[in-house]
Amino acid sequence: MRPLCLRSPRLTLPSHTCPSFQWLPLLPLHHSRPASHASQGRANKAAQGPGKRLGAKKGASELVVPGNIIFRQRGTHWFPGENCDMGRDHTIFAKEKGYVCFYKDPETNPKRKYIGVVFERGMKLPVPRNKPRNRRLGLVGREREMGTLASITPPRVTSGEGNEALEVGGMTEQGGTLRQQDKRTRAKMPELKQMGIRPGYQYRESNRHIGRVAERAQVKVGEFKKRGRFLAWRKVNARRTKRAEKKASRSRRKKGSKNKSKN
């Protein structure tokens, strides 16, 4: 391999010799390289990149659900109001299901603009200070039926022993069982067993009654035979089949991972 040599317009060196330190003052002091200032950053010439899609995402009186983004912004041009909140990037989103409302609240801050959510279309914000607030609290509003409420008696749970008849909220207990008839359909409800108060302030059946449900329902269960070899053989075969399926699935996963790594 031939040695590397430098050529200069001022000095021509033979091709078989390399420059030494005595020729360095005669070499050119300037060199050229491609400019790369523009690709190093955006300090001087900012690029016109795509926008961040800021602004209103939901209009006034538009239906939103919890988590819907209403307004994207950089800084606090708008502030969260009723049933709204602000994220760490100043994005305003809904906390309750309702309709969007843009408003100002002179009593709180006359210079700020707020975004809130109301439960009914047409409601106005801000709400006066002497007016009760509307909150959902995880409930749904429903009209009362006064006719049915007057006929229903409040539930009264009592516990007792023996076969004496007891009243439990319109139900009568006879012989340790509770029966209730629906007054509208006159259909018999299923039997309710006697429930007593248990640890943890719970009204439920005792574990002894729960464990004998199958016996009361006349469910026949075969007796366990210690020397039943046919049943043992079936269980062994089931375990072997399950073990083989697990092994096959593991081998398929390993083969798939190997094929992906090769590709």
From TrEMBL:
Pfam families noted in UniProt: Ribosomal_L27
Name assigned to this protein: Large ribosomal subunit protein bL27m
Principal location: mitochondrion
Keyword RNA-binding among UniProt keywords: no
Gene3D superfamilies: 2.40.50.100
One GO process term, biological-process aspect: translation
Gene Ontology terms for molecular function: structural constituent of ribosome
Organism: Letharia columbiana
Similarity field: Belongs to the bacterial ribosomal protein bL27 family.
Source organism superkingdom: Eukaryota
Entry keyword set: Mitochondrion, Ribonucleoprotein, Ribosomal protein
Residue ranges, annotated region (Disordered): 34-57, 234-263
Coiled coil residues, start to end: none
Basic residues biased stretches: 236-263
